Structure formats: structure tokens, C-alpha cells
Protein: Phosphoribosyl 1,2-cyclic phosphate phosphodiesterase
Organism: Methylacidimicrobium tartarophylax
Amino acid sequence: MIGCRCPVCLSPDPRDRRTRASLYVDDGVFPFLIDTATDLRSQCLREGITDVGAVLYTHHHADHILGLDDLRRFCELRQERLPIYGPAMTLEILARMFPYAFDAKAQAAAYVRLLPYPVENAFPLGKLTVTPLPVPHGQVTTFGYLLERDGRKLLAYLSDCQAVPEEILSAIRSVEVLIIDGLRDEPHPTHLTTQQAVKVARRADARQTYLTHLTHHKSHRDREADLPAGIAVAFDGLKIALD
Amino acid sequence: MIGCRCPVCLSPDPRDRRTRASLYVDDGVFPFLIDTATDLRSQCLREGITDVGAVLYTHHHADHILGLDDLRRFCELRQERLPIYGPAMTLEILARMFPYAFDAKAQAAAYVRLLPYPVENAFPLGKLTVTPLPVPHGQVTTFGYLLERDGRKLLAYLSDCQAVPEEILSAIRSVEVLIIDGLRDEPHPTHLTTQQAVKVARRADARQTYLTHLTHHKSHRDREADLPAGIAVAFDGLKIALD
């Protein structure tokens, strides 16, 4: 954190240097992002990401959207408008913030050009089926997403939530990989604590769980030491094989 | 650049790894930023910047503003709303994009809280006098800024311009340090080329000039090799002593 000299902010462990939460999904057919974190450009350069075909947005908070303009490069490489999916309110806010990105008349291939698709129900994306998972997060409802293929529940992503309602628990039950908000040990009005996230993971019977959207209150190593088997701590650059 | 494998993008020279253009001015009395580049958080962490008391905005293009939300940390450390200065249109666009940052009723100290001051003429900032320098940049007029103290023209910053009008040349004449848009060698509709920037620097009789807002078309080393004495190439982390 800027201007902080706590042991985690000064830690030499690269896993304690965190940029904003985001996920890149590449199934070899249709690569896409969940959110465009403010750090999107440096994240793409760091991970060698050279293609993005779409974005799923969870919600409109600054840390999840301010990399949007850097999608321009993927529009340029693909020579097309990128489809973006998310809650209707999120897409409306993005259109208010970045009107030039949604201007159908704008033809400059070097600029970001987006096609908004508000979603509420499951929809296909490449070979996957994507199901929005509405969850409470302070004053807003954010979307988590469940990714399925051939009847397998491959991945559930719930980056910003203060609770996981029963119907969402049912939807993600027995998911192979769960990535879930586990902000810190201390309670927070809009995010799950570590222990709340662990409880959700157990109730959902997730095969493997990763905690994300983490603060500097505890080091990566100390966090992992406190977690049960099957639950780990995500870090920048973490790669998860789904096959 | 994302998805580029040119020699500059693959260069091992750290000066060839460029984040978005921005400037931090610290006169020991009142530290401030010119623009909040998308990379603001990582730039502050990299340079150990722990205090910002104000921001001067040049214009509203994405690369110059999308770090705005990261000012929250400086609001929190100072326990105050940060004043921001710039063209009226820029501040209006920022208020449309980030309404929560300008909401006088919002009291949450952990969020970004700004006080907008549209400027046209010279104004005091700490011990400095700041003069806006309107310059053309495609469809918009951007502000450069001249910083003066005790009658000395310390610094002129002109990060985005396609030309420098005569009255601006007069205003910055004999400036000690000029930082100026020198995008690339090839012409561009909204930015100065290297040669155009060199010509402005000579006509302004700047003591020392740095080119900024640079593309990946040429390495830092090759750029510098082509420049006359008194004109250098800026790079991430460059520090300039004004005293």
C-alpha cells in the first residue's frame, strides 16, 4: 500500500506484492478476462497476454474497471469491437465513464471499441457456459461467474462479496475450483473474512479453493499457514490448470 | 506495448520499459502531481512517494487520468480533500467519470475526495507560481504548466501537444528545464515529433530539455544518440533537481 511500511508491504516475498484482482481465462478457443483491473497493461505485459476476446465484468468499482482503455490493444490486434458482459448497471456506468468506447460511429482502429451485453442468465462463451452469480457487496450487487463445460463445473469466481446466498451455494456446489473474496481476518462491511470464505468453500464442497482480493494485513506465508487443506492463497501470476 | 515483440519492447534496458507520463514535483514544501497516470499506484510504490497535496491536470485523455482513484491513499494520509486544478472541461469530465470523488456529502475518509478548481490564469501553489499553457492536441486543448519561483522559470511541462503557439514560446522562453512531447520521429496528427520538439526547445532557449510521451518505435539509447547537447530522453524514475 502506498506510504505503508508494515512487514507485508516491505516483504521480499514477491507474492506479497499484489496488483488489483482480475482473472484471465484461456481455454485454447476463446480467451477472455474477468474485469479490467487498473493494472491491466502491466499485468498483460508481465504474463505475456497477447489476446483477449471478451470481458466479463463483476461490478463497477474503480479497481475492477480502470484498465478498460487498455483493451484498445486487443481491439487493434483483433480488428474488432470486443464484447463485454456484466450487470446492466455496470455497463451503463462504463458507458457514462468511457463514452468514446461505445460510440458505434467511431472507426479509429487504434482506440478501444466495445459492444455491451447486459446479462442476467447463463450464456455461451466459446465452449464454456457462463452463469452470473449475483452476490451482495455493500451497496451494490456484484456478479460472480460460474464457468462450465460439458456438464463440469470448472470454476467459480466470487471476487467481491460480503455473503454467499443459499441459491448461489447450490449453483456452485462441488465446483472444481473456487476463487473467492477472503479480504482479511478482521470483519469488513462489504467483503468476506478469511474464516467466512473458508466456511463458504466447505459448504460449497469446492475441490480446490483460492482466496483473493487480499489486504496487506497478513503475509502470503502467514495466511497459508492458517488455512486447511484444499484452500490456498492466490497471488499475482498464479496459473490454475482446469484440465 | 502489449503483444509486441519489437526490439524496444523486448529490450533489457529498463529505460525502455515505460509507464504512462506523469510528473511528481516536490519542493520540500508542497508536493503535487501533474496528472494521475493509469499506473499511479505502481509508480508511487516504485518511487517511494508517500505524500501528494494536489494535482494539476493537463487534459482528460485516459492515460493521464485513470490513476485518479489511487489518490484515495493521499486523502486518507492527509485526512483532507485534495485540490485538483485544470481546464474546466477536464474537471467536468472527471466529475462525470468519478462522481463519488466530488460528492461533498461523502465523509468516508478511506475514499478519494477531491476539490476541483478550474483554472485559466496563473495561480500560487506552495511557494511556486503555476501558469497554465494551453496548447493544441488533436480535438482538444491541453494545458502545459510553467512553474516559477522567485522570478525564476524553473520548469515547463508540455506533455501532449502537436504545436507550441508563439505566445506559449514567449511564456517559457529561457526556462531552466523543459519537458516536452517528443512522441516519435514519424509525424503524428496530435503529438510533436522528435525534430519538432527539438526545434521548440531551441526556439524557447531552454537550458535543459527532456523528451517525454514516447513510443516504442526507437530505443532510449538510439533516441539519445540522435539528439543535440542539452536535449535528453526522459525515462521512468528520472529525477531532475531544480535547485
